Amino acid sequence: MAAALASRLPKGGRSLLGGISNAFTGLTNSSNGLMNGSILSQQQQHRTFIQMGTILKVVDNSGAKKVMCIQARRGKKGARLGDVIVGSVKDAAPNGKVKKGTVVYGVVVRAAMQKGRADGSEVRFDDNAVVIVGTHKDKEKRKSDGKKKHFEYNQPTGTRVFGPVPHEMRIRQQLKILTLAQHIV
């Protein structure tokens, strides 16, 4: 078809069409190079634990949008899927329950680091996400009241959980988060 079109065009048009086809082949070659480069960068990308300084997305309606991890409550290396972290709210909605700068406790519901399952499969998410289960003020208030000696991390602050939540939360005794979740994977 290109040859038939080129024969109908005047002599100057033939060079124009040839230039377009050459540019098109160059474009496809460069896009293949970009695609191969992105595949290599994905393979070289190293996924790590959620550690101090990691920014996590908040996936509930508590009012916070982003949380920076201050400390992982379990393990020396950092937190994984289902672990509790202490974080500071970095970005929040103006009329939410949780304000910017508040120290909060959160449960990691999505982690970019892969986690093996009992059936041999592995689960890994695109982002790191957390559900807020309490604030530092709540913990101090319960200690002063003398009701409970330790703070329990199983009551979320929000009333909805957005996005997929893995069924490993059941093993971690986070049943309330599972009941609020839209999708369980």
TrEMBL record:
Keyword Ribosomal protein attributed: yes
GO-annotated molecular function: large ribosomal subunit rRNA binding; structural constituent of ribosome
Lineage, broadest ranks: Eukaryota, Viridiplantae, Streptophyta, Embryophyta, Tracheophyta
Organism of this sequence: Microthlaspi erraticum
Protein name, entry field: Ribosomal protein L14
InterPro entries in alphabetical order: Ribosomal_uL14, Ribosomal_uL14_CS, Ribosomal_uL14_sf
Matches recorded under Pfam families: Ribosomal_L14
GO biological process assignments: translation
Swiss-Prot/TrEMBL keywords: Ribonucleoprotein, Ribosomal protein
Region annotation (Disordered) ranges: 137-159
SUPFAM superfamilies: Ribosomal protein L14
Keyword GTP-binding: no
Family annotation (CDD domains): Ribosomal_uL14
GO cellular component: mitochondrial large ribosomal subunit
Family of this protein: Belongs to the universal ribosomal protein uL14 family.
